[in-house]
Specification:
The protein is of the alpha/beta class and 648 residues long. Among the domains are: 5-267, Rossmann fold (3-Layer(aba) Sandwich); 458-607, Transcription Regulator spoIIAA (2-Layer Sandwich), CATH 3.30.750; 617-647. Helix content is 38%, strand content 13%. The protein has 25 helices and 22 strands. A nine-stranded mixed β-sheet has the order 3-1-4-5-8-9-12-11-10, sandwiched between helices. Helix 9 runs antiparallel to helix 20. The radius of gyration is 26 Å and the shape is globular.
């Protein structure tokens, strides 16, 4: 079926008139190009507001470098403006971990950069407040959500106040926005003024210091150190984070107060985890699943191309990794879609005109957390732990992979699905019975085998992140010995099923507590396992993570003990270089560094005099290549490729 222009939310006056609307209720400004798909937050918010009966328009990537006509072209909305930086924090989108400008913006047609300003949410909101001081501005999305309280901003190297102060917005919705938006709209439709909406769950507001804060039945309150106190003392700033993180991950959280100059920041507790019906309803809104037609001549949008044929099956992550923002935004409790809703979306994707039979991903923040939750709810109700699986897997957590295995099989039974891949990261530690003592080992092996035989194309990506146990403990990741155990199981299945799959581990350099020797150990241990690392990254401090608090303050927020972090450009570059021990230009540096710290044992592993590891690897690669062409090519092509090898 061909889509009409009116199937998308309007982006221009012409499109508003196509719908015969005389007035708009909400106008949403976004740092992303408009892709009408359930994986794109601005589209979800627009469709949610539309489902509440509102007339909604979206202004994607408004220009901030001209006469600002994009902010005036649709006029004033009846209820409020909404603003978001997009699906990624604009600073992460615009800059690398070493603060260099990125070459591409994945959420812009053709990957073009320059269409999203730095700190986009604040930029958009301030422009709107200057032009329309009497119209409320509501901000949300990942940028606003993670900057809702005093936070360290890596790109300016400063401690910044709540984004409500810098953006001049009237209200902030944090986390996933469906539930708070429903309550906000219901109250506005009843005639309640926007300025009175101070007690909506999962929102934050700035109020005058002398304004009376109403007591809410069943809500407890907690006051954290003021923004000014944080500016004055790094340890004081660090001590705030334990409260912030624990309240973000509790089912019955307290309301948080923080002084900011002459105002008080009020962060209301979050809504309960979305029910299956609620999350199904969000995914079943009338998305076209396509970029807006205005981009047809500008080139493909990389982020859309990546998820075009993927299915999101749940939200939330109970890993609580110290460097990750998922639980701070989506929460640690898993909100899973029903199998029926997922299969309905699979059918929609399978019937798209350019679908070739391959689903790129059936996953979520972590692919293998679907339908997992506490066995006894009352235990979860009292829990304050930021992670359900660190330092050990909670005995109350049901980690059964059966619903997921069953779901994969149901998806693959669709007549138009040739293969469904798992592109999201898999928590490999949860597939190791020695670590996941709650689960049936046979069931874990069945899931691993299902993934390896039917849902991987050549490579299975996992993220052990480091090899040093002290660093892993701080990361809230299990000991590297469990990666060894997983690799043993992976290798057994690989041989048994003759799969010829590669295991690709991801690692992070320059994480708090990581020393140069830790990185040398990482390089040596992964080399001995047969890995030549390519998929690596440097630690990027992003707001609202334990690791970022440590990076800035030098203190662990839970113990307030000093914790070392590689901070200078040289320290960070040196740690990263160990990933690439096999590059000729790094050999002398590695030799000098390890000699200086007295670790000639590691030097012997990384740079053996006879270079036998490299020769063995080359032989192994040749054998694999010859095996592959023998299996997959016709006799004529086999000879052609073998002759080409000889010439080399």
């Amino acid at each position: 079926m061909m889509n009409k222009l009116s199937d998308w939310l309007p982006t221009t006056n012409k499109e508003v008139k196509l719908r015969k609307w005389e007035e708009l209720d909400v106008i949403l400004f976004s740092g992303d190009a408009y892709v009408d798909h359930p994986s794109f937050g601005p589209a979800v918010i627009g469709r949610i507001l539309e489902s509440y009966g509102l007339r909604v328009a979206i202004v994607p990537q408004p220009s901030v470098n001209d006469n600002l006509q994009d902010f005036e072209k649709l006029g004033k909305p009846r209820l409020f403006f909404a603003a978001t930086g997009g699906c990624m924090d604009p600073m992460v989108s615009n800059y690398t971990a070493s603060k260099r400008s990125r070459d591409k913006d994945a959420y812009t047609p053709n990957g073009d950069k320059g269409f999203r300003p730095d700190y986009a949410t604040s930029v958009y909101s301030k422009i709107l407040k200057e032009k329309y001081p009497d119209v409320p501005v509501l901000i949300g999305g990942i940028e606003a959500s993670l900057r809702r309280v005093t936070h360290y901003d890596y790109w300016s190297d400063k401690l910044l106040p709540t984004i409500l102060e810098t953006s001049k917005a009237d209200m902030l919705v944090y986390g996933m926005g469906e539930q708070p938006l429903r309550e906000i709209v219901e109250l506005l439709q009843k005639g309640v003024p926007f300025s009175s909406l101070k007690n909506i769950k999962q929102t934050a507001v700035l109020i005058d210091k002398d304004e009376k804060i109403p007591v809410i039945k069943d809500w407890d309150d907690v006051t954290i150190n003021s923004h000014e106190a944080c500016l004055g003392d790094k340890k004081t700033f660090a001590s705030n984070f334990k409260v912030i993180e624990q309240e973000s991950n509790k089912l019955k959280a307290r309301r948080i107060f923080q002084g900011v100059g002459e105002k008080t920041l009020v962060i209301n507790p979050p809504f309960p985890t979305m029910t299956e019906d609620e999350i199904d309803a969000s995914f079943e809104l009338p998305y076209t699943r396509l970029p807006h037609p205005k981009y047809n001549k500008r080139g493909p949008i990389p982020a859309y191309e990546m998820i075009k044929f993927s299915i999101n099956i749940h939200r939330g992550c109970f890993g609580g990794c110290s460097f990750c923002t998922i639980s701070a935004h989506q929460g640690k409790f898993i909100a899973s879609r029903s199998q029926e809703s997922i299969l309905k979306e699979v059918d929609t994707v399978a019937n798209m005109p350019d679908f070739k039979g391959y689903l790129s991903d059936i996953g979520g923040p972590s692919a293998n957390m679907y339908k997992m939750k506490g066995k006894v709810q009352s235990i979860c109700d009292k829990c304050v732990a930021p992670s359900c699986i660190s330092p050990v897997i909670c005995s109350n957590l049901d980690t059964s992979h059966k619903p997921l295995t069953k779901l994969y099989q149901a998806v693959d039974s669709h007549p138009k699905i040739k293969k469904s891949f798992i592109g999201s990261g898999i928590r490999h530690d949860m597939l190791v019975p020695e670590f996941n003592k709650n689960a049936d080992p046979k069931e874990l092996d069945a899931y691993t085998e299902e993934v390896m035989t039917k849902h991987v194309s050549g490579r299975l990506k996992v993220a052990p992140e480091h090899t040093s146990d002290p660093v892993l403990k701080l990361m809230r990741k299990p000991s590297f010995k469990y990666f060894h155990m997983f690799k043993e199981r992976f290798d057994k299945i690989n041989i048994k099923k003759k799969l010829n799959l590669q295991l690709i581990p991801y690692f992070i350099s320059s994480h708090p507590a990581s020393e140069v020797e830790d990185m040398a150990n990482l390089a040596a241990e992964t080399k001995e396992l047969g890995f030549q690392l390519e998929q690596v990254q440097g630690f990027t401090p992003t707001p609202m993570t334990v690791a970022t608090v440590i990076y800035y303050s030098g203190y662990h927020p839970y113990t307030l003990k000093p914790t070392k972090t590689p901070k200078t450009k040289k320290e960070r570059e040196d740690q990263h270089r160990f990933f690439f021990w096999y590059k000729k230009e790094n050999r002398d540096w590695i030799r000098n560094t390890l000699t200086k710290v007295g670790r000639k044992d590691l030097l012997k592993v990384l740079l053996p005099e006879n270079n036998s590891w490299r020769k063995n690897k080359a032989e192994k690669a040749k054998d694999t290549f010859d095996e592959t062409i023998t299996e997959k090519k016709s006799p004529r092509k086999q000879n052609k490729y073998k002759n080409r090898r000889k010439k080399r």
